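Throughout our pipeline, every protein is held as a single compact record rather than as scattered files. Nothing more is needed to write down the fold, since each code stands for a local backbone conformation. The record that follows is passed on verbatim for readers who wish to inspect the format.
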Amino acid sequence: MEKNEIVIWHEMDGVGDSSLKFIESICHELEIRENFQFKFVQMNIAPFLERLNNLEEEKEKPDVIFIAQDMVTLEKANLSEVPEKFSQYMDKKIWDSMKYKGIQRGVPYVQGNHAVIFYNKKYFAKKPETWEQIRKFKRDKVCNFSMDLEVVYWLMPFIYSIYGNPITDGIVTITTENTMEVQNFILDLIRQGILCCYSAISTMLEKFVAGEIACMINGEWLYEYLNKEMGEQVGICGLPNIGNMEMTGVSSSVGMAFPQNSLQGEKGKALEKFIDAMLSKEVQEKWLVSHKRIPVNKKVLADMNQLETDKNVITSYEQMKKNYFLVNEECINDLWHKGEQILVKIIEDSKLVMNKKEV
């Protein structure tokens, strides 16, 4: 393997995940401008995690992995400590999002990674900003609202909205009463025939693009894909309030990490040039304007309203600013576990509801 060849591993998250193609286009420009060569290895999330946890068995190890911020907790990947000098590009809160046990284990390159409501503009003259508007929608063979009840992440906005921040001093403090409120809110949507459940990254996308779903809660990172598929027909609105409670969610970053201490290895200088390029004003503007993602570069963020005229992206950004920013603490696993328990209960109870309807 040549010293200037950078091997990149990237997880592919369904058809809506177009970030790899965008990263490849950036790297192609760097190949021309710098003496770099890139090799991309793409895989689904399960083999991605399994191989990262068993890197000693890999003949050709990655120099860079593109990951969600929480994957910096993969201790078996032996991720490099990243020099503090790269923090100059972004605010401390964003930079710290890829710290683990007090050590910087990655470099954020976009932020957000949060849930929004996508809606089909042919069904709504205005943004559906309340749950009442979503409930009132009626169209034969079109589902009002879709949510993935098999993935805890999509439950987080409901937990954070009904309870507030459920983490205090590193401990999950959500109560039984609050979990009941979350369960009942979603069960009411099911009982009223408003909610349909599909996989967020496959069937739900297909049905939304086909016009079979009026609204869905899904990841902001899908907007570039949906915009290409639907054009002006797709809209984004912030998460609707639950009664008098402002609906918030969680946000995080997406970044680069360097397994097997690659940043301190023979390709270290080339990898540092790569980091500088990914965080540069030029590339960060492309993430915003061409790929519809929220950048981390503070100079680009300061000019965001001038650079980006797409109102959907601005709406997504406004939602992100309301959200709680996740941190890589052990208590997050406790929160996911609590969410899984709520989902199991919702699924069990909704089956009982459906059985009663059939009887």
Remarks:
- The radius of gyration is 21 Å.
- The first strand starts at residue 5 and ends at 11.
- The chain is about 40% helix and 20% strand.
